Amino acid sequence: MGLRERLTKEWFMFCIVLVIVLAKMDPSVGAKGGPLKPEVTITYIAVSAIFFNSGLSLKTEFTNSWLHATSCFFCSDLNQSCWWE
């Protein structure tokens, strides 16, 4: 297996090692108050990206979920009307 095929197959691990080496060479980039602004980037952007990526991987069954949501709304509406009177 050549170097190109190996990098194509193991691209994620290569990128992780590359980022670790770059962070070791210049840690001030990711330090508090540095150019990456980790207090904002990690708190909001990274967490939002992780949840968005997780949401993209969910299976979408719109028709089944629509019927389920409609029945749940009907039941909750019926329950609340019984409780309030």
Quaternary structure classification: single chain
Give the overall pLDDT as a whole number: 78
Radius of gyration: 24 Å
- Tally of DSSP β-strands: 0
Distance between the termini: 75 Å
Q: Please count the helical segments.
A: 4
Helix content: over 70%
Percent of residues in β-strands: under 5%
Largest sheet: none
Transmembrane segments: 41-58
InterPro entries: Na+/solute_symporter_sf, Put_Na-Bile_cotransptr
Signal peptide: 1-23
Family: Belongs to the bile acid:sodium symporter (BASS) (TC 2.A.28) family.
Short description:
With 85 residues, this protein is mostly helical. The protein has helices at residues 3-9, 11-25, 38-56, 62-84. The protein is built from 4 helices and no strands.
Structure report:
It is a single chain. With 85 residues, this protein is an all-alpha fold. It is 75% helix and 0% strand. It is built from four helices and no strands.
What descriptive keywords fit this protein?
85 residues; mainly alpha
Secondary structure topology:
Layout: H1 3-9, H2 11-25, H3 38-56, H4 62-84
